[in-house]
Amino acid sequence: MLWLAWLTANVTMWMNEVASAWMMTSLTDSPMMVALVQAASTLPVFVLGLPSGALADIVDRRRYFALTQLWVAVVAAMLAMLAFVNGLTAPLLLALTFANGVGMAMRWPVFAAIVPDVVPRVDLPAAIALNGIAMNMSRVVGPIIAGALLASAGIPYVYMLNAVLALVAFALILRWHPEPRSSALPGERFFAAMRVGVQHVAQSPRLRILILRIFLFFLQSTALTALLPLVAHGFDGGDPAAYTMLLVAMGAGAIVVALILPWLRQRVGRDRLVYWGVGVQALASAAVVLASTMWLAVPAMVVVGMAWISTANSLTVAAQLALPNWVRARGMSIYLMALMGGSATGATLWGYVASATTVSASVIAAAVVGPCLMLLTRRFGRAHGGDEDLSPATGNVRVPPPVIEIQPDEGPVMVTIEYLIDLEQAADFNAVMQETRRARLRQGAVSWGLFRDTTRPGRYIEYFVDENWVEHQRRLERFTAADVGLRERRQVFHKGGEAPVVRRYVAESMRRRRPEP
What we know:
The chain has 517 residues and is mostly helical.
């Protein structure tokens, strides 16, 4: 049911993109304005992705997901009404395309967080591939429906059907009843949740390189998709049917490869598949704009779709597996911000290049620049190993209850841990503590430090600070199996007879207290 809702939501997205891109070609002949249609649809994800991800992690995901479709239905209804009365102008079309993109910005992070909640971790790559099939089926179905309506009824009816389909997705989502997320702690605060999300990604080297790669890939690949209406116009008899055929060919290629992606990943490897996908996509994009007829361009678009899904899906699977459940929506929102930021930047950049030169020159320039930039990231990705086990491991955390009364918002809270190590192992201990620093900050710590005793060689004190007592308690819920393994690696260095001594301190308020009467 959720998959059908996702398919329907993406069909409306592609129908809107096809109708709006073609509508813009009738309002202006500027390549820059045509390219800005895609920029306007993707920029909201870049601007609003993190707030949306924070909300998806702290509110009811079912209601929030449903609300996104209600928003899209309202925007589609406004577009239909204005199109019926010939009230759309180029700036107004861009503004409403941006508003439609706001719904997409809200929808993507919450759905990315829902998928791992309803499938086991071992099935996550297959589930993401299935969602990729839904997205690329929509890339086929959406343009076909939109193209048929453009040719027979007109643009207003595309927007009208969009509104109806968005309401269908809204109804499907409301029928889903997920298991409630159980926690004895109050929900996270909005701005604190955003801070922790950004901090988690910033302290994860693997996520950082994945975010850079998805940005660079969409910076390159958007050149063709943003300028595709003008590419279609360039062929003999270029009309909505030609544009639709090119989009359908790309979607069909993506669907075919999505069905065999697990086999491809096993044979080629996830990272190598990314590099091959980027290169093949670049070559096929150049072939499309250099083709003299539609019969040559369509097969090249099929190859573009194959390479596109191979690269995008491999990067998305890696990002999902690099995130624990508690911060998944925020992490994926930042990932999607990079994706859409690359798309919006690419649409604007290559649209400007096309205005200054030609459409073909712009797409070929992107095909040359993109793979070169991606190759520069190769050496950064080699040092980060495989996927960690980020399943919850709260049962492994044992914290003695406080003997003083502490209010949930009291803080900051400082934790100190004392280690006694052999000085000959100091360098290895330091390397593990650098990993520990990143892990503590990923879990939400405000600050972290490591000190050595000036009077006792080999005695080290680790400290980290949480925002308040409830955030310190929340850390226990965020503990993963990978954190357990890291803790065991730290304790190997400790040579005391007992476990390292842990102490917790709550900040004392320095406000002057009123004397007792």
